Amino acid sequence: MVPGSRLVEAVKAIFTIRGDVDSFDAVSFKWRLARLFQVAFGAVSLSVTPGSVLVNATIQTDESDAAESAAATLRDSSPEALTVILGAQVEGVSSVASATVVIVPAPAPALPSPSPSTSQAVLAAVLSVLGTTALVGVLAACWWATAKRRKTTMPGEWAGADAPGKEGAVVVKDGSVNRYSMQL
What we know:
The chain is of the alpha+beta class. The chain contains 4 helices and 7 strands.
């Protein structure tokens, strides 16, 4: 057996339904079979093929006695009674048998691999943020240095008096200030 598989008791039967595959309501049929035998919806599996409509059904039960009882119910029921119960025009039921079946778990779906375009987009976004941050930092440092230079007058520089008749000052190296008038 495949790892993870299990053995369960089940009833197998082939129903011949009047009509065609396109008009057959498999979901409704499956619900009605599950309700008839008081099993979960997932415990019923159907395979539908053309030829009127051939429905190969497997109904899982909890134990072999329940499977035998379900098989007897299907064998003993008339097509008319099954038509009313199952909501489809049953023409006949064949190959009814209880059996032990192997249930193989469905394989887990494969995880999609990340596409190269996604990782490239993330890298581009990170580099863009880092580049923008660096540019803002350089601009802030330049602004700060320029602002500081405007506020400080270096020794030997002329401060003020940018027009004739105004007073100004020269900052001397020792920190003292000599005031002058600009005369032309």
